[in-house]
Amino acid sequence: MAEKSPSESASPRPDSPSATGRSVEVLRTYLTLSPPSALRRSPPPGIDAHLREITACTVSEWRHLYATIGAPWHWHDRDAWPDATLAERLARPAVTVYRLELPAGDTTDTDAGFLELEHHEDGAVEIVYIGVRADLTGRGLGGWLLTAAVDQATALGATRVWLHTCTLDHPAALPNYLARGFVTERTERYTTTIEG
Predict the structure, then answer these.
(1) Fewer CB in a 10 Å sphere around the end CB: N or C, the chain?
(2) For residues 87 and 168, what is the distance between their CA atoms, to the nearest angstrom?
(3) What average pLDDT does range 48-62 have in this prediction?
(4) What three-state secondary structure class fits 63?
């Protein structure tokens, strides 16, 4: 997962924890791939998957993907965003949203993953959100989706690609980023509250 700022996290970092939650210490790691051509490509997954850009992504469509993909990893930072604020962000030309899809016969829910990119003025492309549905992990989709994310960022003219992850994320996330050629820029610790 990736994050642009403390108020807009792609790593799971809830900003509005429940009073019934528990406090946890989290390590966040920022990673970069520069130049994007340094990508070490992942092989195709052992499953028929397709990445599709969602043009004119609606708020309801975005919220569905965000909840479906992010809930197991405590993605809650945008839950409190008003619809108008989220719609304004999704309408920005610099923001691109993608859906990872599976054939209808492979699963009852064809939404297998989610990707949000943001092209910054300095030429960098941020992987703001990236994730695969929890029940589909271990099938090679994570590495393939990250490879596809860098390909899309390159098509946008990225001079570098960056993201962040944290210890609330799937345990394979950080090793996947490192295996694809991303390098750690910095780390930070914070404490947050999560359900359960």
Answers:
(1) C
(2) 27
(3) 94
(4) helix
- The answer to whether 165 touches 2, Cβ cutoff 8 Å, is yes
Distance CA 186, CA 196 (A): 29
Residue 15, pLDDT above cutoff 50: no
Residue 72 token pair: 């197991």
116 φ/ψ angles, rounded to the nearest 5 degrees? -130, 125
pLDDT given for residue 183 in this prediction: 98
Q: How far apart (Å, rounded) are the C-alpha atoms in residues 131 and 112?
A: 9
Instruction: Tell me the C-alpha distance between 183 and 165, whole Å.
Output: 12
Q: Which of 49, 22, 17 is nearest to 145 (CA)?
A: 49
Q: Is 156 exposed, middle or buried (0-12, 13-18, 19+ CB in 10 A)?
A: middle
Distance CA 166, CA 125 (A): 19
pLDDT tens-digit map of 77-102: 898 899 999 999 999 999 999 999 98
Per-residue pLDDT, 20: 58
Rounded to an integer, what distance in angstroms lies between the CA atom of residue 133 and that of residue 118?
A: 21
